[in-house]
Write a structure and sequence with these properties.
This protein is mostly helical and 249 residues long. It is 43% helix and 8% strand.
């Protein structure tokens, strides 16, 4: 159990999956006090370097050890992947109080809040975005590639964007480890753990993301018919199409 005897889990890419923050496969464990001290010292040094992502944060934020990314939920993605895997972009919201190897790069947020995190996670976890990613990813997904992904964002208050936030928030907040994060997003914890509910939400999410990209029914047909040479996505396509048509009404 994470946190027992003052130790934290060390995650690797296989430690998480789509809408699953904990597969039970770990890299190691580490002394929590020692690793947080090390990471805080490293962050303070990197903050002085303009090329460091930590340089975008205020000094007050960096100097406060309570703002260390490892203490709170964050979005990570698998570094090792390819265009023939079942899915190419494998991202997840991980719980706090754990650390990750470099095979699970994670996102920092100098601006924006939990709702923005939920929205981005929803887009990244959709088959719509993944279809695009499979055209540009060969063996690894790094920030150079990730940063080039087109993310459709009409801004807060857009009904479909808000629905993406709600769906992704519900899918990500699997248990009480995400209680504070879920409260900020405005969703209940564990509300999508039922497999039938989860499947329906995942299909609706695809429909919402497709709508935000400005796709039509012909585009959806291309995505699900060409996504894989070995997996038939006809059933998922039909479910997504039902939600998509409702959005057009």
């Amino acid at each position: 159990m994470n946190g027992e005897n003052g130790r934290w889990l060390v995650y690797k890419g296989a430690s998480f999956d789509l809408w699953n923050p904990d597969t039970g496969v770990y890299y190691a464990s580490v002394d929590a006090e020692a690793i947080t001290h090390h990471l805080q010292d490293k962050r303070q040094r990197q903050h002085r370097t303009s090329k460091s992502p930590f340089s975008e944060f205020t000094v007050e934020h960096i100097e406060d050890p309570e703002t260390l990314p490892c203490l709170n939920p964050r979005i990570a993605f698998r570094d090792i992947t390819n265009s023939t895997n079942t899915r190419t972009v494998v991202a997840a919201l991980l719980p706090g109080e754990l650390v990750i190897t470099n095979k699970g790069p994670y996102l920092l947020w100098p601006k924006g809040g939990e709702s923005d995190q939920a929205f981005l996670l929803g887009v990244l976890s959709s088959m719509v975005l993944d279809w695009y990613a499979r055209r540009v990813v060969e063996l690894n997904l790094n920030f150079h590639i990730l940063n080039s992904f087109p993310i459709p964002d009409p801004g807060e208050g857009h009904p479909v964007r808000d629905r993406v936030v709600e769906i992704a928030g519900r899918l990500a907040a699997t248990d009480e480890r995400f209680a504070d994060w879920a409260a900020e997003v405005g969703v209940p914890v564990g509300s999508a753990n039922d497999e039938v509910v989860k499947h329906d939400l995942v299909c609706e999410l695809d429909a919402c993301v497709a709508h935000l990209y400005g796709l039509d029914e012909d585009d959806l047909a291309v995505i699900y018919e060409t996504f894989s040479e070995t997996v038939d996505y006809a059933e998922r396509h039909a479910a997504v199409l039902t939600h998509f048509q409702r959005l057009l009404e």
